[in-house]
């Protein structure tokens, strides 16, 4: 966080006032006149620790003593919420801070100046009350988020709009969800623009997919030759009987026997492998069994 600079001054603009001449209703003239108008965003004071203790996911951190993490999480949500809406000031108590300077508040900025962070030397309540009074005296709109009844009453008397910390939490959650939705929609548009969107088929209901799949398969079956139909029927029969699975098991047994024959020192280990077996194993390696041989082995093994 960088050190905060002075508060932004009120912006001025000029209006052309229409004045009546000589009391004549129908005769007017334009008169240039400078009128001071405050065009700054409304000021939003947030009682930092008060809001943190109203938000369960931040309160957990606070209770564990992870104050820095809790503050960072709050400031991140406030930064998203405040864009083009408020000039937000999050105020924390700094009574027990090691770097506290007597009689002086410490100010920082967060998210490139989107949020001002104040560590009040006395208390967050006292800072919010005196700043609200000063800003309202200048005519600036002020909004305060706190659940402390005393500070809420005082700020309301100065003309500020006061909301509870719980309401502020609800607003921050809604803002975060809206931001996530905007990002998701942007990503979807980028995917569509790149031609990477999901096929239409994936978007169809599962029952409609099955119906169309069956229709497409029936159309394919009409185009098969007699030999292809016979081969397909034989394959389906093998699947039903489990012969393919038995054939695969037989092939695994055959590969295991070949591996044992190639193992060094098989004769010394008493595996019973002879030179003839080794020769046959070599021949098996050079000429693997066909699928029908494997199937036959599997059927006879069964």
TrEMBL record:
Pfam families hit by this protein: NYN_YacP (PF05991)
Compositional bias (Basic and acidic residues): 18-27
InterPro entries reported for this sequence: YacP-like (IPR010298)
Chain intervals with Low complexity compositional bias: 267-281
Stretches for region Disordered: 1-27, 250-291
Name the record gives this protein: NYN domain-containing protein
Organism: Chrysochromulina tobinii
Lineage, uppermost ranks: Eukaryota, Haptista, Haptophyta, Prymnesiophyceae, Prymnesiales
